[in-house]
Amino acid sequence: MEGIPLNPFASLIEEDIETHGLxxxxxxxxxxxxxxxxxxxxxxxxxSLRHEMGIEIELAHVNHGLRGKESDGxxxxxxxxxxxxxxxxxxxxxxxxxxxxxxxxxxxxxxRIRYTDLAELAERGGAASxxxxxxxxxxxxxxxxxxxxGSRVSDLGGxxxxxxxxxxxxxxxxxxxxxxxxxxxxxxxEECGAECRRDSSNLDQxxxxxxxxxxxxxxxxxxxxxxxxxFLLRMGEMGRSLHEEVAxxxxxxxxxxxxxxxxxxxxVQVLRVVRESAREAFLREAVCRLIDVxxxxxxxxxxxxxxLEAEGSNRWAPLGNGLRARRVYDKIVIERETARPKRSTAxxxxxxxxxxxxxxxxxxxxxxxxxxxxxxxxxxxxxALLDADHIDGDLxxxxxxxxxxxxxxxxxxxxxxxxxxxxxxxxxxxxxHLPLICDDAGILWVVGHAIADRVKVTDNTTRVxxxxxxxx
Length: 472
Description:
Blueprint lengths: L7 H12 L8 E5 L4 H17 L2 E8 L5 H17 L3 E5 L2 H4 L6 H20 L3 E3 L4 H13 L13 E3 L7 E3 L7 H11 L15 H16 L4 H29 L1 E2 L3 E5 H5 L3 H15 L7 H12 L5 E6 L2 E6 L2 E6 L11 E3 L3 E5 L4 E8 L12 E5 L7 E4 L6 E2 L8 E2 H7 L4 H4 L4 E4 L2 E5 L3 E2 L12 E7 L2
Parallel strand pairs: 1-2, 1-4, 2-3, 4-6
Antiparallel strand pairs: 5-6, 7-8, 8-11, 9-10, 10-11, 12-16, 13-14, 14-22, 15-22, 16-19, 17-18, 19-20, 20-21
């Protein structure tokens, strides 16, 4: 197949690319291609524009492994399309059903995996953007879907023309076809004599989006509002304007929070004192940093509000999309619903000089003998200084057991370890995985929290054992 000459369809794409600043001369663009009509039309349009616009394009296809031979047929089609246009193509293969996370739908898992692959390919290859073939019809369906989920008007902005493909990435996700509808796509393909694949799962009525596309929207057009799609798109424009007003508040709150690859943590008091719209913007921004979802239901926001008002700790609420919110004492944690690791029952003997790895707990204990107490007893949560003459027998590291008791430094006496951990506000889901350094007489150090009173360093101490825990 030769490059398609410029026509009105491609000219419209070019105009929108320039209007919204989607690409610049010299850019390398990855085009995501499923093999369906929209993505094929996007490839052909960009291929006809690339020389004039001064861009380089290559194709990418993700085989999700969900439709057996049909998925393999899509992959072959995309490879053939790339060869016919003399374009490079990268294909990745997955078993999405096996790679799903706990609480994650097949659709959400496929989307997460697909966008992760596209982001990694673009970042690794120095591409400026990843182009996807979403159309005006997709936009209207998305806005209606969010409306049905109870999203606020400020959440109904629809898909953006351009945004970072993931948080912190220099690569942009661009949608050059948001101003064309499916009828224009089909007409363009027919004019080009181009073939495409038809995904049978797009007819599966078990998916909400398919029911919206094939049942709800046509019914609304016929029985209630012939221009319902245009109405939804105008509502999306208003939603985008409102969204920008509150999004900055949410980003500010998340920037001040503790963030990691699987969770975002923020003090309860911070969320209690801000206005409701900022609180919702925080939740949306926090979730977007964990997974790539454009909107949250009103029910999810309401559940977060209930956690803010709840008393006590270890309460949680599902947010959908494989995420949950947890109240942990005076903090709210937004995190993935991952399976909890099993408690380690291993008992590892610690060398009293040198390093001892504890693989089950992901730490290494380094021991060092000191001939005399240091002048400055510099400690941190990962370091303990013990009076070596008060250690009874060998040292081991283990996790807690029923009946464990602990006499913490400065406490009037021994108590149940569980009560000590509750007082120190150790989250319930962490207590079974907390490393404990013990001798024959009991617990010497609750790693990260406290040493036992009986091994404290005093003016009478003559030998010190310094323990340092790497990896906590």
